[in-house]
Design goal:
With 88 residues, the chain is mostly helical. It contains 3 helices and no strands. 77% of the residues lie in helices and 0% in strands. GO terms for molecular function: calcium ion binding.
């Protein structure tokens, strides 16, 4: 059985993103991921679909890691503020 060119790469990229993000609502996550991928792909017209999938996966992974890092910093700063400035 043959599959369309680039489909395997796309499924691998989507799978990695779902495993990394661990979304509560997978259908919504996939909808957003694919919408962003389509937008990314339109900026890379004529590029090999496999490369677009992998490039987007790398871009998305860096963005996800950056957001997680910022969330950790925010939570840490908030915890320090609570310890240093108790409400009572």
């Amino acid at each position: 059985m043959t599959f369309p060119y680039g489909l395997k790469s796309l499924v691998e990229s989507i799978s990695r993103a779902v495993l990394l993000a661990e979304p509560a609502n997978i259908p919504d996550f996939l909808s957003n991921y694919m919408t962003e991928l389509i937008s990314f792909r339109s900026c890379h017209a004529g590029t090999d679909p496999k490369l677009v999938s992998f490039d987007f996966e790398e871009f998305w992974g860096k963005l996800f890691s950056f957001n997680v890092y910022n969330m950790i910093i925010y939570v840490t700063i908030t915890a320090v503020n609570i310890v240093l400035n108790p409400l009572y």
